[in-house]
Amino acid sequence: MVILQNRLGGPARCRAAAISLVCVRFRNHLPRLGTNRTLVSLLCLILATPAVFCQQFPGMSASAPAEYAATVTLSTGRVAVVKAGESHTLMPGDTVKPGLEVFTGSDGYAVFQLQDGSSFEVYPNSRVLFRSNWGNWNDIFDIWVGRMKIHIEKIMGKPNPHRIHTPTAVISVRGTTFFVEVEEDSEATVVGVDTGEVMVEHRLLPTGKQQLLRTGEQLRIDRDVPIAKARIARDGVLRATMRTLSDVLYAVAVRNQNRGAGGVPVPGGGGGTTPLPGDEGPSAPPPPPGGTSAPTTSAPPAPPPPPGN
């Protein structure tokens, strides 16, 4: 259906094509159906429901509640979103709606904010699908490759459940800060907890049991190794590495933004500083969550604390 929409030019045409397919399917049976009111009512419901087919698939431009979108608060280098089969450079102030893919180049880095106070950072050479499950907004990410730092904010001190999917793992969180790395070749997933707790289960070899990770712990999930045999590392190597990387990239992004240097246009994409349709324009550099305000001069600032610290 995604391919159908892309070829037909949008959800409206996709809906029309889907309805036509339904009509063709039932056309030969209509003489035998007579006045079966149940089937007639079902057909009318399909005709009356806007984009009923197209809204159920990732990447569709169908409407979604604004509270489920993510806003870019900081970016540097090559950061873009795939929308209707085309790439568009993301700038501070742009929004990413559910079902869209975010990707970064070798110099790309971006910080995103959610309405509930949660935030996430996407590091270089990463591909992430944002809220692709239209039936459950708590399935927040599908991380295909690369690295992310994710902070899930508790709601009034209470758990805020979310799930993150990778090719080999399903990560359940309720309010914590953690790192995820997905290797490109092996598709192995490494999860490291900065603060709080996360539950991890194997996506390809499910057993119904989850592995609990606490602050400072990390776990590697390989394609062909049951999670029960995976060893929990308590040395915090991923945590330390990602903290340092986050500090450096955040400082670079703030400095570039203060100097007016936005993201690098993606070849073949929207490019430039023009916001995506329906999005707001660039905003002032945000203070890092939990830290101090970003510097406003053009002199290189001292590295501020990264989001979530």
Structure notes:
This protein is an alpha+beta fold and 309 residues long. The protein has two domains: 2-56, no CATH class; 66-245, Jelly Rolls, CATH 2.60.120. The chain contains five helices and 17 strands. It has helices at residues 2-8, 11-27, 30-33, 37-48, 237-258; strands at 70-76, 79-83, 86-89, 95-96, 100-104, 109-114, 119-122, 127-130, 139-151, 162-165, 169-173, 177-182, 189-195, 197-202, 211-214, 218-221, 232-233. It has a 17-stranded mixed sheet that branches. Helix 1 crosses helix 2. It is globular and about 50 Å long. The model is unreliable at 1-33, 46-62, 262-285 and 289-301 (pLDDT under 50).
